[in-house]
Amino acid sequence: MKLEINGEVHELDAEPDMPLLWALRDVLGMTGTKYGCGIAQCGACSVLVDGAVTRSCVLPVGSLEGSKVTTIEAMEADPVGGKVVEAWVRHQVPQCGYCQSGQVMAAVSLLKNTAKPTQEDVRAAMINLCRCGTYNAIHAALSDLAENAGKENA
Amino acid sequence: MMASQHSDAPHSMADETLFAPGTQPVNLSRRRFLLGSAGVASGALVLGFGIPLGASRVQAVDASGGIALDVPAFLEIRPDNTVRFLSPFMEGGQGTFTAMAQLVGEEMDMDPATFVVEAAPAGKVFQIMPGGRRMTGGSSSVRSSYTTMRRLGALARAMLVEAGARKLGVPAASLTTEPGKIVHAASGRSLSYGEVAGGALDLPVPDGAGIALKDPAVFRWIGKPVARLDMRMKSTGKAVYSIDCKVDGMLQAAVQHAPRLGLQPGAIRNEAAIKAMTGVHSVHTLEGAVAVVAPYWWHARQAADALEVDWVEPADPASLRYMPADFGTEAFTKTLASQTGRGEEAEKAGDIDSAFASAAKSFTATYKSQYLHHAQLEPPSTLARFNTDGTLDLWLPNQVPEMFQAIIAGKVGLTPDQVRINSPLLGGFFGRHFHYNDGNPYPHAIALAKATGKPVKVIWSREEEMLRDPLRPMAVVQFRGALDAQGWPLALDVVSATEGPSEGIANKRGKELDDSALEGITGKAYAIPNRRIAQNFVKNAPTLAYWRSVGNSMNDFFYECFLDEMADQGGKDPYALRLKLLEGNERLTTLLKAAVDLSGGWKRGPYTASDGTRRARGLAMASPFGTEAAAVAEVSIKDGEVVVHEVWEALDPGSIVNPAIIAAQANSAIALGLSQVLVEAAEYEDGMPVARNFDAYSILPPDRMAKVSVKIIESGAKMGGIGEPPLPAIPPAVVNAVSTLTGKRVRAMPLSTQSFEA
Ligand code: FES
Ligand code: FES
Q: What's the pLDDT tens digit per position in B344-381?
């Protein structure tokens, strides 16, 4: 099947019920997207499907023909993703880092839909688990991004 | 010519290390392979150092049994003026790699930002902790290596200066350094470290004894909030964990563990059907598990889950850590609670019998804690590859590389140096990656690599992980307190029914009591004149583990909550009581006041907050891992559930290396403390864990995190740890607040199993 990932169409040799997470990690060798639970509970595997944040561990690749998948690997080059990454570095968000691909994807999805999210928006959107407890740093980074939305070099 | 202070003969061990065949270059090439990095650049300075210890320490070590005294480490200075440093300690989020770069860079006069840090492979040269050991745990990385790492940096600087002197044709004594460069002030010339790195390679390593360390007053990086080195790679998906490792020709495997530890696989009823499943390469019967191997892990996992295995009871369960079919946590809690013995004494002061006899008032209370999972977000994995030269490469999460190396070498019949332990970044650890007999996936990876003749990466699914993750012990603790006529504490009698993690891991009792069973009930600083603290050993069926802050993770909860009970029983305020019991202890008095000041002054409550909620605050202290901690927590109740609004914590680690990392670690440890007290419990029914994934095993979600304020106090006392110490005071601070708010004493964790009314 064909799968569009980060703007590139891949010919994917995988059966339709393989979850996107494992197609990315094993078939395509893109290991930035992480496996944490496999049952849509933790968010470590978050990617964007047609712009919406989605847990790839429970998403069969067969359902994605014609969809655009965006992963953490594309974030530095993405206008919103780049800002999120910079904010993550500025606020020294990650600890072990294992959940952070998913956290960044959730933040990018939020900001793409709502450039200036309120605290409530942030709370509603940032629901991925972090065992290292980086929650306050994530909120600080997003507050910063929300405050500086629209400004140059935000 | 050598600078005068460096004129001693080169250290022989250093030369040996520097030129030992096949050591560092081999390691580097493995890492290059793994990480796809550039590896050793040509012309780079590759240094292995022998760092002689000071005389007093040398004697001390000699006196303790003649352990090797040389402490080599590993640096590569590249022509582009960056540094590759192999850290003796693992990075799992706690910021160690950055702290190590600060220590080395400070004395080397090299900006830590120019460091690329990786975990050092297993090897004696990296066992730099006192006693010739190495582990990443016990919040000990920075404090155990603070001087050693600085000496390493100082030696590197001396060699670079000497190389610069030769290149410029001037005496070394006429040179100074600025970050990353050697400066000859008289002529205005300078050279970057990278420019002289190649020349420095040919020089003997100077004798460390002649090299002075910097005056802390002029520190440029130590003590500063230096940015962490791993932030960008971890924000862009580029960080490589064990689970991401890949080698040519690799197969992957998933396992189905025996439902209970001790059972062995018998017949596989549907083996033919499993072998016919998509992608399946082969099916293998292992010790306590059946594995399916496939090129893609998803296929292996689907097939492993579908296996129908006859599990066979062991012939002699007593010889194993065996999980009986009737084990349940509810019944086991009752077993612990029904222990009536006086236990074995771990701490004793005064005379409790006469104190209780003469007391104005005495009372009892029973506390309980729960089993906990580590629940690090990266499920465990191991990649094993047998090489054509007979050596074995392993990529696996671990906190003790040499220990894994020695045990694995013994198991597979190789010498330790034939077993290479590669240690990628840890996706969290919290104690998970020590060596646990039945709790690490490497035996599976090795067996499967052998059986298939190919490199194999085993990943334990989250469900299989929660079946074998060794647990933080639980305990039921009986307290008896006595007050004098003025209502002040006179005596404390504590018996904890528990199995310590160390005796659990060893699966036998040591000659001495297991310190980690009672730490946090023992070792408290309060002046209660008559004390008896004892352990009633009760063996647990589940395997046990170290969990962030170990015994302190639950024991300070018990103690500090009962201390509040003693305050209430005597009509004292808990803050005033603690101050009284710490009279004359300047360090802890200062610390406690700092935590209270940070919270805006002591305000126990209950009171009505500006948003109309009824709130209360609780207080607790802890002395874990060489650091002192005091915390205040503010809570309210919403829909029967406890809400923790804010936590204020003061920490005194004596002295510090990076305040920003400490604040981040405090946030992290506080989150884990909140998780434990609010939502977490690993429960068993019928010999099986009730929860096998995050749907049923709760960890702190984002909306239950509290606002956190941290105050760091540098009292100048001996340097303490950071990763664990902020945790233990959190559960009792929260529970003391809840007890105040509800007017009812809460004596068990987690709070989610109880319902509350404000
Ligand atoms: S791995 Fe997909 S949500 Fe946890
Ligand atoms: S940073 Fe470790 S799980 Fe989030």
A: 999 999 999 999 999 999 999 999 999 999 999 999 99
What CATH number was assigned to the domain covering residues A79-147? 1.10.150.120
In angstroms, the CA B43 to CA B376 distance is 41
Chain A residues near residue B462 by CB distance under 8 angstroms:
36-39
Which helix (H) or strand (E) segment is B446 a member of? Answer: helix B442-452
Report residue B664 CA to chain centroid gap. 15
pLDDT of residue B33 exceeding 80: no
ipTM rounded to 2 decimals: 0.98
Superfamily of domain A2-73: Beta-grasp domain (3.10.20.30)
The pLDDT tens digits of the residues spanning B658-703 come to 999 999 999 999 999 999 999 999 999 999 999 999 999 999 999 9
Report whether B631 contacts B730 (CB < 8 A). yes
| Contact across the interface for B236 and A32, Cβ inside 8 Å | yes
**How long a stretch of residues is chain B?**
758
Question: Could you report how far apart the first and last alpha carbons of chain A are, in Å?
Answer: 39
- Which residue of A27, A28, A83, A98 is the best one to mutate when testing the B interface, meaning the one whose CB has the most B CBs within 10 A? A98
Enter the pTM of the model.
Answer: 0.92
- Written as six digits, the tokens of B81 are 């003026």
Which domains does chain B possess? 43-235 (3.30.365.10), 242-315+380-459 (3.30.365.10), 329-371+472-753 (3.30.365.10)
Rounded CA separation B299/A18 (Å): 8
Residues 6+ apart with CB under 8 A from B586: none
Q: What is the pLDDT of residues B708-741, one digit of tens each?
A: 999 999 999 999 999 999 999 999 999 999 999 9
**Is residue B490 within a helix (H) or strand (E), and if so which, with residue range?**
strand B489-498
Of B236, B244, B694, the CB nearest to A41: B694
Q: From CA B161, how far away is CA B178, in angstroms rounded?
A: 11
Is residue A18 in contact with ligand 1, taking CB distance under 6 Å? no
A115-142 exposure pattern, b = at least 16 Cβ within 10 A, e = fewer:
eebeeebbeebbebbbbbbbbbbbbbbb
Computed over every residue of chain B, the mean pLDDT equals 89
Q: What is the rounded CA–CA span in Å between residue B277 and residue B355?
A: 72
**CATH code 1.10.150.120 region(s) in chain A:** 79-147
The nearest CA of chain B is from the CA of A151 a distance in Å of 22
pLDDT at B197 (0 to 100)? 81
Please provide residue A122's backbone torsions phi and psi, each rounded to the nearest 5 degrees.
Answer: -65, -45
Residue A91 buriedness (CB in 10 A; 0-12 / 13-18 / 19+): buried
Is B558 within 8 Å of B477 (Cβ atoms)?
yes
Per DSSP bridges, beta strands B74-77 and B83-87 are antiparallel
- The mean pLDDT value for B396-422 works out to 96
Domain with CATH 3.10.20.30 in chain A: 2-73
What b-and-e string marks burial along B629-655, b requiring 16 or more CB atoms within 10 Å of the CB? bbbbbbbbbeeeebbbbbbbbbbbbbb
DSSP B707: E
Chain B residues with CB under 8 Å of A34 CB are 243, 377-378, 427
Query: From CA B544, how far away is CA B501, in angstroms rounded?
Result: 5
| Per-residue pLDDT band at B339 (split at 50, 70, 90) | very high
Provide the 8-state DSSP code for A27.
I
d(CA B1, CA B163): 10
Between B696 and B28, where is the model more confident? Answer: B696
